[in-house]
């Protein structure tokens, strides 16, 4: 790879603005957001409800188009990146098909691409092992807990080997214990896959535990108020959540909210 190519950010937003038009009003959801995310980086978008986190994620995924500014992915437009299937997306609720076995939920995107069944089954087993669900291939989603269902959704998002994994509050509906365990498991998956992850959350500890950098957003209008480096070493461990460094980072991010 040339030096220039190495410097191209994976995701780049320049002065992005998003206005929604409703029947009665216009909502300025994002105002002049500029940020860069490096290839292989794990970042979080953190902020209170309504600050535009989901909007930002949807813009990166080309599910919506900005009303101003530019979104560039690996040097191309977000639309080109979407067409090149660079994205895997995980939503807050796992959106699984109850009548399909776990393995067939995971490989649905491959099926839609016309990949043969033998190869799909092989890939499903690989992914199930990756997300810690070995042995659940022939179960149905309704036979699994909420946390296990979300792992199936993660496996499905990874089935097309996306360069970028976009995650919109994937663990927010889960209890605290399950959520913390899934945070650790997600990092273990990411360390093996090595893709770029953009993770939306309104939990300060979750954003710190997972990320290389945290983008802090503020509401009315949604804008980037701080970018916080997380210098905790990797691999991250459960004990780190009780370290003085972790509490200092929480306090620092809280202060960055108070400053807006
Ligand atoms: N389709 C839409 N039409 C009109 N307004 C919208 C639309 N989608 C989002 N908004 C508004 O844009 C702002 C940002 O919404 P967004 O969902 O991106 O925030 P968020 O930070 O993800 O919130 P939450 O944490 O509650 O999911 C909010 O004021 C919201 O009401």
Automatic annotation (TrEMBL):
<dbReference type="GO" id="GO:0005524">
    <property type="term" value="F:ATP binding"/>
</dbReference>
<keyword id="KW-0547">Nucleotide-binding</keyword>
<dbReference type="InterPro" id="IPR003593">
    <property type="entry name" value="AAA+_ATPase"/>
</dbReference>
<dbReference type="InterPro" id="IPR003439">
    <property type="entry name" value="ABC_transporter-like_ATP-bd"/>
</dbReference>
<dbReference type="InterPro" id="IPR050166">
    <property type="entry name" value="ABC_transporter_ATP-bind"/>
</dbReference>
<dbReference type="Pfam" id="PF00005">
    <property type="entry name" value="ABC_tran"/>
</dbReference>
<keyword id="KW-0813">Transport</keyword>
<dbReference type="GO" id="GO:0016887">
    <property type="term" value="F:ATP hydrolysis activity"/>
</dbReference>
<feature type="domain" description="ABC transporter">
    <location>
        <begin position="11"/>
        <end position="244"/>
    </location>
</feature>
<dbReference type="InterPro" id="IPR027417">
    <property type="entry name" value="P-loop_NTPase"/>
</dbReference>
<keyword id="KW-0067">ATP-binding</keyword>
<dbReference type="InterPro" id="IPR017871">
    <property type="entry name" value="ABC_transporter-like_CS"/>
</dbReference>
<protein>
    <submittedName>
        <fullName>Sulfonate ABC transporter ATP-binding protein</fullName>
    </submittedName>
</protein>
């Amino acid at each position: 790879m040339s030096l220039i190519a190495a410097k191209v950010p994976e995701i780049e937003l320049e002065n992005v603005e998003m206005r929604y038009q409703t029947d009665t009003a216009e909502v300025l959801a994002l105002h002049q957001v500029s940020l860069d995310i490096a290839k292989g980086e794990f970042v979080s978008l953190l902020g209170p409800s309504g600050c535009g986190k989901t909007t930002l994620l949807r813009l990166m995924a080309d599910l919506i188009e900005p009303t101003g500014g530019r979104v560039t992915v690996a040097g191309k437009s977000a639309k080109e990146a979407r067409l090149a299937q660079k994205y895997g997306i995980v939503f807050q609720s796992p959106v699984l098909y109850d009548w399909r076995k776990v393995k067939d939920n995971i490989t649905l995107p491959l099926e839609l691409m016309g990949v043969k069944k033998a190869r799909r089954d092989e890939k499903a087993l690989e992914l199930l092992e990756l997300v810690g669900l070995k042995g659940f291939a022939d179960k149905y989603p309704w036979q699994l807990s909420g946390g296990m269902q979300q792992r199936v959704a993660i496996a499905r998002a990874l089935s097309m080997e996306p360069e970028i994994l976009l995650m919109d509050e994937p663990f927010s509906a889960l209890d605290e214990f399950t959520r913390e365990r899934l945070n650790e498991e997600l990092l273990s998956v990411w360390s093996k896959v090595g893709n770029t992850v953009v993770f939306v959350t309104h939990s300060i500890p979750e954003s710190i535990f997972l990320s290389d950098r945290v983008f802090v957003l503020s509401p009315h209008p949604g804008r980037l108020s701080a970018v916080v480096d997380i210098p905790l070493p990797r691999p991250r461990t459960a004990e780190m959540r009780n370290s003085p460094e972790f509490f200092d980072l929480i306090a620092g991010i809280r202060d960055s909210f108070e400053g807006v």
